[in-house]
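User: Some background: our group keeps a shared notebook of sequences we're curious about, and every so often someone picks one and asks for a predicted structure to add to the entry. Today it's my turn. The entry only has the sequence so far, pasted here. Could you supply the structure so I can complete it?
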Amino acid sequence: MRTALCFYGKIGGSRGKNGKGGCDEILDVSFKHAEKNIININNKLDVFIHCWDVDYEEKVKALYRPIKCQFEDQISFDIPSHVKSVGDPHRNNNHYSRWYSTKQVLKMRRDFEKANNFRYDCVMALRFDLAWETPVIFDKFDMDYFYVSYLCRYWYLGKDKQRKMLKPEQYWHLRETIDFELKHEHMGYGGDTGTSRGLSDVFFFTKSEYVDKIQNVFDDLDEYTKSKHLRRLSSHQLLLHRLQETELIDKLRFAFHFLDECAVTRMWYKKFHQGKYFK
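Assistant: Of course. Here's the predicted structure to add to the notebook entry:
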């Protein structure tokens, strides 16, 4: 099986979203996890990269050794006025950046296929800052399906017997230090049924032909966000919407659990948290 490993976006930071905090240690730690649990255990694997962190170009190339890559200064996108922000207004630009970067790296993959007259058996698109704890052996998966990670819900029963919800990072680091039982529910979809429903978007993998249908979400963002339930941008909802629109939803399968097996690196390592999740 020949696989394209397609990294997109920012390297990630140690202090929350938007790449805040230093990138050096996040890059080193994330690469070690990817190297051990993906890169070194799959034969015939090619790496493609689109990245916004131009200052890290040489280091990223030295670590990942991509066959094609592109590093760009961050673009400030022209976002339609009908797009609503959730919390930080910069998040809308982040969503446009995410899907632009995804488009660029998947286009590199497709151009390479065309130039060499072949198709990858498996294409995985993923963010840089994941701490993979479980080996990902692509030969074990049927690539006629489209795989994303499980989304999970974390909670405990308080003294009032009411359910108290936890952030994923709180669950992971509190579960060995408290004397009451934490609950961990494995789910596929996140959110309630209906318009708030979404999928984990930290990675997906499938065969190359299916990836072609996902590649250009960026081109449709302005139109998608005219829909009432997509107006407040969410990549979780956008990915689900795209699978429904392209009739790939019946091919959807879940593999690996977010946090336990493929957490965002800053969530995984307590030293990056600086105590802010444990007040």
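Suggested note for the entry: Residues 275-279 have pLDDT under 50 and may be disordered. The longest helix spans residues 91-116.
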